[in-house]
Write a structure and sequence with these properties.
Elements lengths: L14 E4 L6 H17 L4 E6 L5 H14 L3 E7 L2 H10 L4 E5 L8 E7 L8 H13 L9 E4 L3 H9 L10 E5 L9 H8 L2 E5 L17 H14 L3 E5 L6 E4 L5 E2 L1 H12 L7 E5 L5 H4 L1 H5 L3 E5 L3 H11 L3 E3 L5 E3 L10 H13 L6 H6 L5 E2 L3 E4 L5 H17 L3 E2 L2 E7 L4 E5 L4 E6 L5 E8 L3 H17 L12
Parallel strand pairs: 2-3, 2-4, 3-6, 7-8, 7-9, 12-13, 12-14
Antiparallel strand pairs: 1-5, 4-5, 9-10, 10-11, 14-15, 16-22, 17-22, 18-19, 19-20, 20-21, 21-22
Helix pairs in contact: 1-2, 1-4, 3-5
Length: 482
C-alpha cells in the first residue's frame, strides 16, 4: 500500500489534505500503517479513533483503521464525536493514543487527523516529522494482533463529564451556534445539562455547511451570532468550530469578545479561588495579562507559550498552569477544572459559571471592567515555507540588535523580547508587536497592539513592522492589513 499522500499535508501538530486531490483512501491506509509503526516506537499501540460529520469522514476513518490494524494497533472506535470527546476517551477507556479524523473548520473537501500517543498531549513537530518520513519514505512495519473494537454510546460519558459539578443557579440564556457542524449533535444537550436555557442556532447536522463554515473566528459566523443575540435578548452566544475544540463568544450587546480577553476575564475570576495560579497565554494574546492589577494582587504568574494546540498543551503541563488561553479560541483547563486539553464545552461551562457568579452583572459589563486594548487582526504576508523560519530569525536578530543599542520603536523603548515563538517586542506604554512564521501556511504572521488608540495600533503596523518586513525580499504581499 502506498497511494497518494501529498507531503504538504503534514503540519507542525496535525495533518490536513484535500481529499482525492492531495490524499486518496489508499494513502490514508498507508498513513494508518505509518501511525501504527510510530505508536509502537512510542510504546503506545492502543488508541481511540472517531470522526467528524462530513460526507467522507467515515470512509477516511475506515481506511485509517485498516492501516492501523495492519500495523498491529488496537483501535477503540467511538464513532461520530467531537475532538475533545476523543481526547477524553483516551483517559476514560484507558488507552494512550488518539487519531481523530477531522478537518476542523476547513472547507468541504478537506480531511485530516489529529493524533497523540500519551494523554493529554497531541503530536508536535518531532512526531509529525517522523510520521511524515514513515508515510513517504518507508520503514512501516506490519504486525499481527491488530483489531478494531466498536465502543457504543460513549457520548453520554463525555456529556456527563463536561457538565459535571455545580449547576447554574439561574437559567442563563445562551445561543448555541454550531454552523451545522459536528458540535450540533452534542453542544445543546451539554449546555442544558449545565443548567443553561439554550437557543439553538444551526445545530442540524449538514455537511454542506449551507450558511457558513463552522469557524468562530469567521466574520460571517460571528455576525450571525450577534444578530441572533439581538433578536432573542439572549445573555450571550457561544460559537463552536467544526470539531468542538474552539469556542467563540458574543456578549449580550452582540459584540464579539476575543478569546484572549475572555480568558483574562476568567483568569480574574479564577484567582479568587486559586491565588498564585499560573496562566499560559499564546504569543498572539493581549498584553493586558502582564499588566492586570487583579492578577498581580493574587500573585498570579503569566507565561507566554507558542501558538498551536499541541504546543499549548505541553506548555500548560510544563508550567503547572491552571489554564492556557490561545487567542484562536483553544483553551486548556488543567485539573481541577479540566484535563489539560482543549475543549470548547469546558470553556463554555466556565464562561457560564463566571456569569452565574457575577451577581447579575452582564457579560458586557464584565468585559467593560478590562482596560481598552486596540489589537489588530491576525495579518499574514506570503513567505515561502523554505524561507519563512530563516526570515523570522533574521528579523528577530534585528530587534535584538535594536534593543541592545537602546533603540526605540515609534518613540518607545523596548522593554522585553519574547522569543518562544518568533519575536514579540514589548514596548513602553504597553504596546507590542509580533512576527512569527505560520505553522500551516507559507506565510509570516503579524499582530500588533496599542493601549492608546486604533490610530496608534495602525501606525505600529504601517510605520514600524511593514517597512521592516519589506526589506526582506522573501516577504510578499499581505492578505489583509489594518
Amino acid at each position: 500500500m502506498t497511494g497518494l499522500i501529498a507531503p504538504t499535508g503534514f503540519r507542525e501538530y496535525d495533518a490536513r489534505w484535500v481529499l482525492d486531490t492531495d490524499l486518496d483512501l489508499e494513502g490514508v491506509e498507508t498513513l494508518g500503517l505509518a501511525l501504527a509503526t510510530l505508536l509502537y516506537e512510542l510504546d503506545s499501540p492502543r488508541l481511540v479513533t472517531g470522526h467528524d460529520y462530513r460526507s467522507y469522514s467515515e470512509d477516511v476513518k475506515a481506511a485509517l483503521i485498516r492501516g492501523l490494524v495492519a500495523g498491529g494497533a488496537e483501535v477503540r472506535d467511538i464513532g461520530l464525536c467531537l475532538t475533545p470527546m476523543a481526547y477524553f476517551a483516551r483517559e476514560a477507556l484507558g488507552v494512550p493514543g488518539v487519531a481523530m479524523v477531522t478537518a476542523s473548520h476547513n472547507e468541504n473537501g478537506w480531511t485530516g487527523v489529529k493524533m497523540g500517543a500519551h494523554p493529554p498531549f497531541t503530536f508536535g513537530p518531532e512526531e509529525m516529522a517522523r510520521l511524515k518520513a514513515l508515510s513517504l519514505e518507508g520503514g512501516r512495519i506490519e504486525r499481527p494482533g491488530g483489531r478494531r473494537i466498536a465502543v457504543e454510546g460513549f457520548a453520554n460519558r463525555y456529556l456527563a463529564e463536561v457538565a459535571s459539578g455545580p449547576k447554574l443557579s439561574r437559567p442563563i440564556r445562551v445561543v448555541a451556534a454550531c454552523g451545522n457542524g459536528t458540535a450540533g449533535a452534542f453542544v445543546p444537550e451539554a449546555l442544558r445539562r449545565m443548567g443553561a436555557e439554550v437557543i439553538e442556532m444551526d445545530t442540524d447536522l449538514d455537511w454542506t455547511f449551507p450558511r457558513y463554515n463552522p469557524n468562530p473566528e469567521d466574520r460571517v459566523m460571528l455576525d450571525a451570532m450577534a444578530d441572533r443575540v439581538r433578536e432573542t435578548g439572549a445573555d450571550l452566544a457561544l460559537g463552536f468550530d467544526g470539531d468542538g475544540d474552539r469556542c467563540g463568544v458574543v456578549d449580550d450587546r452582540g459584540h464579539e469578545i476575543f478569546a484572549d480577553r475572555m480568558g483574562l476575564m476568567l483568569a480574574r475570576d479564577l484567582v479568587a479561588d486559586h491565588p498564585g495560579a499560573t496562566f499560559v497565554v499564546d504569543v498572539k494574546s493581549t498584553g493586558l495579562y502582564r499588566t492586570d492589577p487583579v492578577l498581580a494582587a493574587a500573585s498570579a504568574r503569566v507565561v507566554y507559550g507558542m501558538t498551536g494546540h499541541s504546543h499549548m498543551k505541553r506548555a500548560v503541563a510544563a508550567e503547572g498552569a491552571l489554564v492556557g488561553f490561545e487567542k484562536s479560541g483553544h483553551v486548556f483547563f488543567a485539573p481541577p477544572l479540566g484535563r489539560g486539553y482543549d475543549d470548547a464545552l469546558v470553556f463554555a461551562r466556565e464562561i457560564l459559571r463566571l456569569l452565574d457568579r457575577a451577581g447579575g452583572r452582564r457579560l458586557s459589563e464584565l468585559e467593560a471592567e478590562l482596560p481598552p486594548a486596540f489589537t489588530s487582526l491576525t495579518m499574514n504576508a506570503h513567505c515561502p515555507d523554505t524561507e519563512k523560519y530563516a526570515v523570522v530569525e533574521r528579523i528577530a536578530g534585528e530587534y535584538r540588535a535594536l534593543a541592545g543599542a537602546g533603540g526605540i520603536v515609534l518613540g518607545r523603548g523596548i522593554l522585553d523580547l519574547v522569543t518562544v515563538n518568533g519575536i514579540r517586542v514589548e514596548l513602553e506604554g504597553g504596546a507590542w508587536l509580533l512576527v512569527r512564521a505560520s505553522s500551516n501556511k507559507p506565510e509570516l504572521v503579524v499582530v500588533v497592539e496599542s493601549l492608546d488608540s486604533v490610530d496608534d495600533m495602525r501606525a505600529l503596523f504601517h510605520d514600524a513592522v511593514k517597512p521592516r518586513l519589506a526589506a526582506h525580499p522573501e516577504v510578499g504581499g499581505w492578505n489583509q492589513e489594518v
